[in-house]
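Incident log, structure service

09:12 report received: a user says their structure output differs between two submissions of the same chain.
09:20 pulled the input from the user's history:
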Amino acid sequence: MAKSMVERYEQLLRQDPTSSVFVELAKALLEKGEAARAIEVCGQGISHHPTSTVGRVLWGKALIQLGRPAEAMEQFDQAISIEKDNPYAYNLIGEVLLQRGLYRSALPILRKAVTLQPNDGRVKLWLEQAQQALAGGPAPVFADLMGLEKPKADDDAEAPEGAQESGAAAPMAAARLRAAALGDTAKVKLAEGAEAGARKAGAARANGAAGAQAGASGAKGAGAAANGAAGAQAGAAGVKGAAGAQADVSGAPSAAGARAGGPGADGAAGATSRRTEDAGAEGDSASGAGAEGADSLEAAGASGAPGEHAGVDSTRDVADSLGLMNRSVPTRTSSGAELPGLDLSLDDEDGDQATGAAGTPPSEAPRDASGESFSASGEAPEGADAGQDASGSEAGGRDEGLQAAPPEGTSELPLLLSGEFTTAKPTIPASGGGLLGDLPPPEPTGAAPVAKRSTPVRPSGGKRSLLDDIPDATAQTAQVAAAKTAPKQDTEALTAAYEKELRAKLEREAAKTSFIARHGVKAAGAVVAVVVLAIIIGGFLKYRADQGGQTLNETLARTEDLIIQDSRGSLDAALAQLARAREMDESSSRAWALTAWTHALLFADHGMSPEDRRQALEALEKPGVKEGSPALVLTTNVLVADDRGREPARRALLAAQEDSTEVHALAGGLLLEAKDEKKALERFDRALRASAANVRALVALGNYYLVSEDFPQAIEMFERARKKSPEHAGARIGLAEARLALDQDLNAALADVAPLATDAKLPAALKGRQQLVHGELLAAQGKHDEARALLSKGAQGPLAFEFQLALGATGRAAGKLDVAQAAYEAALKLQPKSDEAREGLGRTLLDRDREREVLTRLEGDGGRKVALVRGAAYAKLGDWKKARAELARTRVNDRYPPEAVSWLALADAAEGNATQAREVLEKALAAAKRPRNDMRLALGQVYLRERAFDKAQAQFEEAQKDPRDYEASCSLGRLLLMRGLPDMALKPLTQAVERNGAHGEARDALGRTLLALGRTPEALKQFEAWQLENPGSAGAHKGFALALYHAGRRKEAEGAVGRATKLAPEDAEAHRLRAAILFAAGDARGGFSALERANRLDPKDPDTFCEIAHAFLRQGNADNADAAFAAARREGPDATCGRVGELYAQLPAGGRPAARTLEDLAARAPTTWDKAFARAAMARVLLGAGALKDARAAADEAVKLAPHEGRSHLALGLVALKQRQEAEAKAALSKAVELEPTDGPAHLALADLLVRESAELPRAIESYEAFLRLAGGSQEAARVKKALPSLKKKAAR
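09:34 re-ran on a clean worker, output below:
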């Protein structure tokens, strides 16, 4: 790599020391040979990326370059330990070990690589070659370093006669040449005279025969032809005796080289042609240098003849083509048929090389292409020269396993494309691929110099030379000479004639044969090939089917995916996958580690089965598990630890530096248990960064947010968990709980969680939560009876406290406040300091209108929730000062909870600052994503105070959409009742009472609505129920008194109203009602006193002014009554009593126009008593106008509407009297006096009727006297006073 790239990588690494670019920088440095710097870079990079397999291998590679193999092996061990089942690491390390010739170390690595990738033929080949190398066979081969090339002959060249001989001899010659080179590299000499001889030959390129003759004579540089097939043949046949001659690169002639080509020289089979000028023409590359070749050449040159030194230095440039010959060499016959390859190799395990001086042969005899080895005596195999002497005068170092040299004149000769040979350990070239393919070759072994000798010497004992069995050059030379003596023209003519004749005969025979005869063999071969292929494919498919169609890596990956889903079903499936994985490789430490982790999860989350714990612990003890999977070992130990070992296991986990998603997720859970939320969240974050689909981490985070009441975040976590594991019970239950808290998607939540009730695989730890949320969802759907039945089952279990709270909430929602209160009290017994239980109890008491009991039972030392409830209690009692003090305790960072904001706004409105309250509430509602009902209700109340009825109604109607909000229905009903629409108010008020029968406001409004509609008995039932529910409620007693009053039960009403005023002495309405009851009871003085008290408590109440006006009318004081009615109109423009009273005070004036007005008022009057009042007034107006019939109808309607109202009967009596129906008049007037004993005008009307009958004269006098007593200041009083004495005298007679 260019230097600029190194600098660029260094710049990137300086900018970000944690970047993974350190790998590329280390590779670049290794290519430049800067191994020391590469080690430094790898060390720094791995400190940030401890799991980088490539980084570890590069580190080891650099250490090898520096000659530190022991340290390199340590890095390789760490690379494997990062992920024991990753074939990539095994491939890299196996490759580098093979490069270094460390076959015994590479063997287990390659076996593991083959196990992990059984279908990778490349790795299998490496394993087989490594095994062969250990057994003394050839070294592994990684690239094509040798080949055969058919020699090119010039057009005018004539093949020697020997060329017609069997082509099988040609590969034998190649084998001998190669074996000679490999077996005794030191004997390779630079035959300087070879090139010169080839040049002097002149026609060696053009005429192969001339080259052959030159080679046979051996006179001028014979033994090596620089170029051409003829030269190559000559070198093979005629230079057998030349001692390692090579053609010099420079091509300079050498006399010593010529002498070396003599018959007595050594190792001619090792000779190769070396030229730079004709490298392209020869097709032999001179690149891809290796230093070892040059060193070997130097060694050989140093020990050679004096003339050989001249070409040594010039060979250093061409030594780059050095490579390994340890591979099978394919050979071809002259006809182009491919012969079996020759397996030529050195014994690299022993490292011994044959040396010419000592004559030490290789350790073992290689075998020939047919698999047969030569005999120890040197007998040549079939095809060799029969007359050749195996122990004769051949050059030393011949290979025992090679076949005979090719006969002279053969037309084929293998070319040694590598150019040089070495006895060093094999080196894998970069073209072989892989990260470590560019490792530099190891240092050469340094072959000993070879001394020339004329006679071959075979050492006694020990190893034989690789060239021992090469045939004697003398015999070959003789054969060549004999062949040369034959006349060329005759041989060629005969050959041509024979070939022509043979072709003609073959054509005739082919024309006669059938298709089957011609192609039968091919067809049979094709059929056999198809059958064999089918068998192979069938066997492979069966193997894949037996293994589930998965390799070991695929099975383990599938297992990890199932484990991370963390459900009972997925864990059972993971165990099945692990059993299959162990069948593939029983020794897989990763499979055993995952087995331990799976059983630990089953033990911890699904039943605490001792069998799961036992299997988990047994799996941990399997070889390699603790070393290969430390993270899973730590987590498994925590989950299966007993009481004694639990704390040490947890400490070890929390202190571990393993960057594993399982470790971080479990550590986060432990830290949450220890209340260290910050560190827990950090661990969860690291777990999810390591694996975004870690279901255990997601569910744990969801539960944390659920407890923290961050429900949107909880929903997000649970939904992410369910995306990976849809059936995860914990995620389903948590999601339902979060949705319930936000009141979102309740139907979906119920449908999701309900089936878990019958799921046999539901963990025992989750059964309580499932039952709890199931019951709460049923209650939220309005199925309160089902919810209570379900929740009652868990009230005695481990979650008894939570179930009691849920029962309390369900009771409140169902309106069963007594049941709710009992549940909250039971919860408080379980946890007396629980703010949640105290809040539930307080709200239940508020629902029952027991505000004072709330303040008594909930002490002021509670938390924010308790303070909020106490503030609401004070607000309902109207003590706004104390309410503000309690609500101030709910503030956090100068912010109030929404409910507190609502109560504070109502406090502002009650204290006269309604405008500010309205603005605050409007802004809060506008800013809220989901406006709260309590804010809507508060704003509606403020609008109501401002008499903005339409706006108030809109807020109440919006809040009423929540079917569980009884207060919204109550407020809407009360507003409608206030607006004179009792018929429309009936429905929402009925709903409110159904939702909360103890809600006093709803009961009161419903009772008044029923009274307004004239349904007095039903109203009485409502007030009675309220009174029974809350005996201490002043409102209940007041309402009950009102119903009794309108029912005509005045005595009972007096007692009820007395209790009401006692409980609420500041209640103006109670005093006003008491005044009406006292007047009806004949206590005019007490009635006036009560009215005065009511008027002082609420001086602007229009109903109080109306009642004052009626009191004046009872006295016959029409002027004062008219003023009081006017005051009522002033304070309540829409008050029916005020508008009717103004006309009533002017009786009998008004006429028809007044009657029509009164009729309209009667039609729009909100209550029956107001309607009756209007009808009675209309009857009297019509009576004064003389319309007796219409007056009678109006009077009858008034009595019908208010049968217990004295005014109605008074109007009927006066009309009947005018109609001369004295009996009916007498009854009606008598009833009027009975109902209104303090009504002076009624006594006067009755007295005027009775006085007509002498028998009724005493009663008449009594009535007159009552009139004077009650209305002595009226205009009629003078008349009565004047007539009364005479009447008394008359009655005395």
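09:41 both user submissions now match this output. Likely a transient worker issue. Closing.
09:42 reviewer note: Residues 607 and 764 are 7 Å apart (CA to CA). DSSP finds 62 helices and two strands in the chain.
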